[in-house]
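Before relying on records like the one below, remember that each one covers exactly one chain. Contacts with other chains, cofactors or solvent are not represented anywhere in the record.
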Amino acid sequence: MSTKEDEARTELLQGTLDLLILRTLRLGPAHGHAVAKAIERNSEDVLQVEQGSLYPALHRLIKRGWITWEDGTSENNRKAKYYRLTEKGRRQLRIETNRWDKLVAAISRILRPVVGGSGS
């Protein structure tokens, strides 16, 4: 996954793409291209999901039992795999979201310390 501002590939924290995929599939089943486009659209095109990152992540999530898939037909009448969040994936999404929130809060405390606090 990369950002538009930095044309050189920017690696996000490990597991971030997995979290974004799980969150996207929470809305319902989708094929891979639709998952990538939803992440791009919802990030206001800041995050660009490359196929070389997306499909290995989808396979990793299947292996963990967090998502499953079934054959279907895309909007343009092509065969596609539709990925779906499993109950185990829903539980993991809650866990990963909580972890993410804690990480963001911790980083924010370092980047923007409270005035009068130590470390400024």
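The chain has one domain: 2-111.
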